[in-house]
Amino acid sequence: MAHYFISDLHLEARHPKMAEGFFGLLKSLKEAGAQATESLYILGDFFETWLGDDYQDELSERIKHSLKQLSDSGIAVYFMHGNRDFLMGEQFAKECGAILLDEGTVITIGDDTALLMHGDSLCTRDVEYMKVRQMLRNPLWKADFLSKPMEARVAFAAHARAESQSSQQMKANDIMDVTQDEVDNVMTNAGVSRLIHGHTHRPNTHLWEFNGEQRERIVLGDWDDTQGWMIRWEKDSAPQLSKFSF
Question: Which of 40, 24, 43 is nearest to 221 (CA)?
Fold first, then answer.
């Protein structure tokens, strides 16, 4: 059976074609059945923004319903937080029939293991972002933010997105990519030779040697209105990164 990995869809109502591409993927997995697919991993930035599990709109309700159908068919669904949807909580996961994974979860498929991350914590050269990330992931900050009226959260998210877009235009490309030393550190600490992540929007498979060990880093790409990226991984075979159209 196959395991599928996707990331960085950045779903929102103003991109309906992208959402339809996602629903098309779910339909194909469901039609193939649990005898062909064991799990779907969504490694962060599933939504462009997530303002709390009490937020509702037509798209989020359809997503919950579709993922719950997939889960009920016997295919396991896993979420991991990204930098855009770090406020996704257990209630949303429950309504989707999904399981929330911690950043840095190690999974085993057959005799192989892999470290799963969203990837933003690997971009340590972006010092400004790392400071903001530390603040936003603080449980006290999150609790305070989620206690605010939805209108205030919407306004904050719009302001934060505008500031983020402006800031990124001023940064060199390499600053927003992962730091190799941090990649090797997290892989060594996890005891793995394979890392799967998203975030950087730079899909590729990187191979290198570290202290005599062959290592692999597979980076998922971001989606747009015409295509998406996925990794398909079956027991006793190597994971395959691919782009597909919809």
Answer: 43
- CA dist 127 and 176 (Å) reads 10
Radius of gyration of the chain from its Cα atoms, rounded to whole angstroms: 18
Q: What is the DSSP letter of 164?
A: H
Number of domains within the chain:
1
Q: Is the pTM of this model over 0.85?
A: yes
Q: What is the pLDDT along the chain (246 residues), one digit of tens a residue?
A: 999 999 999 999 999 999 999 999 999 999 999 899 999 999 999 999 999 999 999 999 999 999 999 999 999 999 999 999 999 999 999 999 999 999 999 999 999 999 999 999 999 999 999 999 999 999 999 999 999 999 999 999 988 888 877 777 666 777 789 999 999 999 999 999 999 999 999 999 999 999 999 999 999 999 999 999 999 999 989 999 999 999
Domain of residue 133: give its range. 2-245
Tell me the CATH number at 67: 3.60.21.10
CA distance 43 to 222: 11
Query: Nearest Cα to 108, choosing from 193, 220, 224?
Result: 193
